[in-house]
Amino acid sequence: MSTFVAALLNSLDIGMLLFVIASGLTIVFGVLGVLNFAHGALYMLGAYFALTAVRWIELPFWAALVIVPFAVAILAAAVERLALRRIYARHPTQALLLTFAFLLILNDAVRMIWGPGYQIIDPPRALTGTFVLAGAVYPLYSLFVIASGAAVGLAVWLLFSRTLIGKRIRAAALDRDMALAVGIDVPRLYTLVFAFGAWLAAFGGALAAPMRALGPAMGDRIIIESFIIVVIGGLGSFPGALLGALILGALHGFGGRWFPQFDIVWPYVGMALVLLLRPHGLLGRSA
Amino acid sequence: MQRARLLFAMLAALLLAAAPAAAQEKQPIRIGAIYILSGAFATYGEFARNGIQLAVDEINESGGILGRPVAFMMEDSQGKANVAIQAARKLVFQENVDLLMGLDSSGVANGIAPVVPELQRPFLITHAASPDVTGKLCNKWLFRNSVNVNQNMKAAALVAKELDARRWTTIGPDYAFGHQSWEFFQKYLKAEKPDVEFMAETAFPKFGAEDFTPFINAVIAAKPDGVLISEWGGDLVNFVRQANNLGFFDQDFELLMTLGAATEVLYALGDQMPEGKWVGTRYWFLGKDTPRNKAFVEAYHKRFGNYPSYNAQNAYAGVYTFKAAIEKADTVEPERVIEAMSGLEVEAPIGTYTIRREDHQALVDGFWGVTKASGDYPIRILEPMRVFAAADITPPPEETGCNLQQTAEQ
Fold this sequence. Notes:
The structure holds two protein chains of two kinds. Chain A has a domain at 17-216.
């Protein structure tokens, strides 16, 4: 029983963190039609900004967790205004190349600023230690990660379904020209959505920092998992990101526990099956 | 900054190369170095650069080698064999380097080994631990001055022999290094202590797994007496933190972390590295009381602000290995240099080592110890520490699958 509970908690821990990050990727794609290669680099930036805030500015971790994602979002907004905006009209591969360029630039910038070595952040004092659930001993901080992921997911869902800005974003995603025609400021909305995607990536980075070693190119692994999630769940689908992330979390949590030798292969098998059987993803709409 | 330095070094080398023929004798001896300079493992290339830089500056300040200055240039392997092969060809055929060194990954080392003879330059591996490059893939151009998997695992078995643990399991990265570590550990420990048992339940998370909790839970649930951990670098940092959170280190079993005493890991973890655990490394900066080692540690610390990692020492010693070989051969002519390197004795911070004739593996000592907090150092130190003499941990040449001696005689 306790091993099952531990595997379940692992699945949720891995899944909810990936959900926060992947939801940013899928929202940006759903609205802007841009597959942001630099999304993993924004996650990395979130972690490194948190490191700077905690270690050098000596802010408490909580403050860093609130401030850092906004700092990265502002940076992303500037990138959207100065660069990305110019190429929406062109072929999608150009946006892919541009964001890939940002990925390379950010990876090298991080190495030059923070150095190539490994660094860590301690979890906040209130969240160090473990709790026991049905015989399974589990880190308190992981519970916080699961709760944060759920809270962010709920907030994003409310934002899209219950607020005016959410309706406008959905309108712009469905039909950009029509949205423009009814007087929605679509370019501003795009900046906002891109920045929000970056906010989610950076929040994921800051949230992950007390559990994982910081190192240059740490985002490269995350972006691959995020892509897999988005493909499984359906490109551009927000509930799809949740489903995809939970599936991937379970593949690692349960698969890693009982079939560790296949841990590398599960996500790709899952993705291949979805692509073969439901090319638009489990919850995706056909284009 | 680093780029600028590299550019400057290349520019300097170019200017020197363009000097008139009269200055022929004063042309620098050129070393080409291939390490990981970008991505998640860039820290290893950085250490190697520091070590080479220090050695080259020392040598140049004291008159160079055979009266000639030494210059070096670095190329990024990106941790990929095909990139490293291209880099090696570029260094030899375009930059005309006299000597090659480097390699941080066993995969890269195994990939490049068969290509080395076509380059016709001595190639000294200073990090990659794959047994194959001084085993079934060996050739007369290839050398290594760092501890390999066999040596480190033999030392691990000698530590494990004295521990009160009978049932062993492992956690290691899911590629050649993790699996070979476990394989050699079993082989050597079984020979030392026949009544040990090796569990079928082992954990091999993928390299760069980020999340080790499922694997840590599995090992705790399996209730072993001893665990061999061959995770390294950033993976080991992640592993130790998550293991701390899960109470892994408070469990009632013995632990051996085969590369736990790597300084980059100890610096990253600080107080989070548990005390009282056995950790190994390929060089420990407090491991030798010799004047040679003390001078190196002091010079390195003064210049770079931290204590030298094994990769820094190995690269530093690598440059001095070339120096000794060229002085012995009295020329930089490649065929003569490799002749001189075979059987060469080198005085280095890690100790005086001999490069074995049969397989070109250096007979270097192995370092293990128990982690302990110290008021004098910012990182965990080893106390007690055990230094294993090369002779006790290096398998005989017959076991390596390589005999260059024989091929030479035939």
